[in-house]
Amino acid sequence: MVGSFRAELLKLGKRPATWLLLGIALTLGALFAYVIPYLGATSGTTGATADRGLAATLPANIVGNTLGGYPVFLGALLVVLGVLFVGGEYGWGSWKTVLTQGPSRTTVLFGKFGVLAVAALGFVLAIFLMGTVASVLIALAEDASLTFPSAFDIVRGIGAGWLIATMWTMFGAVLGILLRGVALAVGLGLVWMLAVQNLISQLAAPLLPWVDSAQRGLPGPGAGALVAALGAPTGTPGVSALMGGGPATLVVAAYLVFFLALGAVVLRRRDIL
């Protein structure tokens, strides 16, 4: 397991797509969590999210501000990462090459899953660091307070972000395994993240009470409720206080375990890779 983990970690670090996705995540996080709200607050522009104000971009709100993108946009990038890292092995024929060397399918797969969990943590920490720098710069520019949340709140926020980010990367990995490739898995993953979830939450749920109840058991609304409980602005796409932080954590954790188990079972039972 350790050998597989080290090999997969080296492989992930050498792929340009990994760093490209991280760069896109940092850029989107900076733009939509800090730059655009700051420009809107200082220019006096009115709009749907104008009520967030300058205070939302200050260090005191760093936990919620950096978590707001995980239910949809940053989550979609992590789904793509999971698909590329696992589904890409089918196109290159890497599965057969690795497994003929001796490691079991489960060992190789959980080595990949472990690396994806580390990558998800790296994304979360990088985005939090970006948010820290951006919020401090804004506070200095506006001569505002540099007070940060408590250490407990910061660690709890990073832990919640890691849980959500890992769940989305495993979702992408399982799509890659089920569909044995990249293109269709990425397409379906993005359709679910960017279209289906929003249609359920914004169109179907307000009209049908049973859909409103059922959506609480879906991964996207669960992630959105979890980050909302930690202070993410509810006007952010995908962020909605449908339930408390405790139930939302259980929903996200349950999907993480489900994706891990599903990926392992499917890969082990297939006759042909």
From TrEMBL:
Keywords: Membrane, Transmembrane, Transmembrane helix. Pfam families: ABC2_membrane_4. The chain crosses the membrane at residues 20-39, 72-92, 113-140, 160-179, 186-208, 248-267. It comes from the Bacteria. PANTHER family: INTEGRAL MEMBRANE PROTEIN-RELATED, MEMBRANE PROTEIN. This is ABC-type transport system involved in multi-copper enzyme maturation, permease component.
